[in-house]
Amino acid sequence: MNSTGLIVEYNPFHNGHFFHVEEARKRTDADVIIAVMSGNFLQRGEPAIISKWARAKMALQAGVDIVVELPYAFAVQHAETFAYGSINILHALKCNSFCFGSESGNINEFSDAIDLIENHRVEYEAFVKELMKTGVSYPTSLSQSMKKIYPDHKNYIDLAKPNNILGFHYMQINNTLQSPMRAFTIKRKNANYHDEEFSSSTIASATSIRKATFEANQSINGIEQYVPKTTSNVLQEYYNDYQTFHNWEMYWPYLQYRLLSIEETDLANIYEIEEGIEHRLKRYAKDAVSFHDFMQRVKTKRYTWTRIQRMCVHILTNTKKSEMLRHHNHIEYIRLLGMTERGRMYLSQIKKDIDVPLISKISAISSELLELDIRASNIYSQGLQEPYRQKMFKTEYAQPPIYIHQN
Amino acid sequence: MNSTGLIVEYNPFHNGHFFHVEEARKRTDADVIIAVMSGNFLQRGEPAIISKWARAKMALQAGVDIVVELPYAFAVQHAETFAYGSINILHALKCNSFCFGSESGNINEFSDAIDLIENHRVEYEAFVKELMKTGVSYPTSLSQSMKKIYPDHKNYIDLAKPNNILGFHYMQINNTLQSPMRAFTIKRKNANYHDEEFSSSTIASATSIRKATFEANQSINGIEQYVPKTTSNVLQEYYNDYQTFHNWEMYWPYLQYRLLSIEETDLANIYEIEEGIEHRLKRYAKDAVSFHDFMQRVKTKRYTWTRIQRMCVHILTNTKKSEMLRHHNHIEYIRLLGMTERGRMYLSQIKKDIDVPLISKISAISSELLELDIRASNIYSQGLQEPYRQKMFKTEYAQPPIYIHQN
Q: Which of A6, B26, B33, B346 counts the most CB atoms within 10 A of its CB?
């Protein structure tokens, strides 16, 4: 069976995602679509609006055949480590190709950029380093360094765009594999990544959909035209089950409590905390009346919102440098969140050939990397009130992979 | 001016306390009554029903002249360290005497017990150690050891009674001082320390009063006959200001969060965590739906409710062994919470002679011991919802000592 991998967050799954799944299937002539999906905390340092189980269900009901979890140690990370984990998992699952959305939409622009940079690696890396020292962000530094090296090159890719930079890293990591997967990219339609307002009649960014969901007083009215019916249903089911959608504000009391009670030396041991920002984080924790207020107080030109949000997730989950550095370059297991009938057939076909344990339950193996996932899930549940907190705690241990009989 | 010290928690101040203040004043012929009072967390490992400021106000309005805070490092402690801090503070404030409530009510019984034990210290301590090894509690071991050494002695004091054992330690510590204060004791009236139901018409235990306050749906109806009018007023004011009284359940989500996110090795570094109980605490944290439920699951014959509650307070406030052991045998400052006009006169009279800094604001000195108090106060505030949380955070920094013009 011909298989194609996608790297996703589905927060929540919307029409743009649906388009991407269908287009990827066509372009790559896939029999099976495999999505590696962030768990309950996301790359940009946020809790997912609904749990990974509900998000896996949305995906499976809308055309994806297999959903596996990107472990916390790779998911809540800058682009390079995020790409490392995702690509390695898709490769371990024997994907023939992978397909990502990008602002560029042209796969040759990505290969060109990689070739150009490879040819001038030393010079290029020196430029990037120099620019970052002056306070320029990493993606912008990559982009500007390319301009410096090839001032006359017309079609260089804009690596300052969030999906381009991710795609660039996917392809870089893929190139380091023994048998690289074939890479495809699809131009993103209409909505820009961070758009907060709806910008077209049927495609809107996940950010704007989340915003609408929360603004509409935790109701899904007003988002139906931007998401498949299956997404509306799952969102409604989730709300019925847990009486809330998740956002950072639910976790703010815990983050504030943690910042007020932790010693600075211990805070400095949390992953991604560096350069003395621990003083700043502790200093502003007490005066802030909400997470949003806290972020406004803490952010600086030097630290992007996303970077600080990721720090906050690591503080919340008590993830230490020592833990992350032990684990962030090794895929110890692949956790199956759900599959369709076709996905099940694919997995039984490849099972004998894969050399990473494919697990359906967290009791299946003992792994420190998995401990991080379990802790992150527990903390995600902690945002709920009882009795919903208990319900979600139990789900993490008892839930078998979601199975969709007919796709 | 003749001054008498009391060691108190006033959680809340009730008629029994009022009787004790008046009786202490008469017996010791005091011009000034000084109370050293636990801050926001109490000896038995509980948050106080209302903040230390409100409790200080109750005391001052009902006859106490000076209220100072017993630092966290002495307050949330077993009897011996609690006594060490309290007696040393009263002595530093030049008290001529101190007066404690006890089940015995006879000061000679205390001196006798101390003499008897002093005369057979080695033998006595060996008995105590041996009994504790078999799982007998510390107070009961003290009591039983005395029976073993003096089987024929009729009037030995029952050290298994909670107020007797505290008084015993007060007197032991007082004896080690260069110029010991004169010791007085008053027999406790009617209510037993732990009584949960009201047992007489005007005197009830603080435990039963708290229980009534919470059971009556956070209303003070039904406790008026057991507390001075001033107490009812302060309780009502507090409720108007913060919309709640405090109990452990308010802090349960934070404790649970902490237990779920902390690593076992770090948990073992928290003060009073020993002998592998960290496994047990972590194991039961997830299944418990409330603090009460958690305590029921965790407690064993070996670990008393109070002992586990104290551990829980230290986990909640992130108080480490290293911090406590650095500080628990030195009075670095005395923090004034409030005074009457008469109290103010007394303090200006002794000011030149006291050799511990007497502080009115936490900005006055820099001390690691004080940092513990500030952290404990911040965590106490964290139990409130916004905007009340901010209000209480600010109080801790901005509140000058309460001043009562006319007593």
A: B33
Classify residue B17: in a domain, yes or no.
no
Choosing from A269, A292, A326, the residue where a domain stops is: A326
CB contact under 8 A, A387 and B317: no
- Please tell me the predicted confidence (pLDDT) of residue B362: 87
The shortest C-alpha distance from B375 to chain A (Å) reads 6
Of B287, B378, B387, the CB nearest to A289: B387
Tens digit of each residue's pLDDT (9 = 90 or more) over B20-68? 999 999 999 999 999 999 999 999 999 999 999 999 999 999 999 999 9
Residue A315 is assigned to a structural domain of this protein:
yes
* B72 located within any domain: no
Check CB contact under 8 Å for B318 and A378: no
CB contact under 8 A, B382 and A253: yes
* Pairing mode, strands A97-102 and A182-187: parallel
Using the 3D structure, point to which of B122, B141, B160 is the last residue of a domain: B160
Instruction: Give the range of the structural domain holding residue B135, as residue numbers without chain letter.
Output: 107-160
* Count of the separate structural domains present in chain B: 2
**Joined tokens for residue A161:** 């765009």
Give a yes or no: residue A203 inside a domain. Answer: no
pLDDT, tens digit (0-9, with 9 covering 90-100), for B282-320: 999 999 999 999 999 998 877 889 999 999 999 999 999
**For B359-402, how does the pLDDT look when each residue is reduced to its tens digit (9 = 90+)?**
999 888 888 889 999 999 999 999 999 999 999 999 988 999 99
Known binding residues of A for ATP are 7-20, 101, 163, 188
Note the ipTM here: 0.91
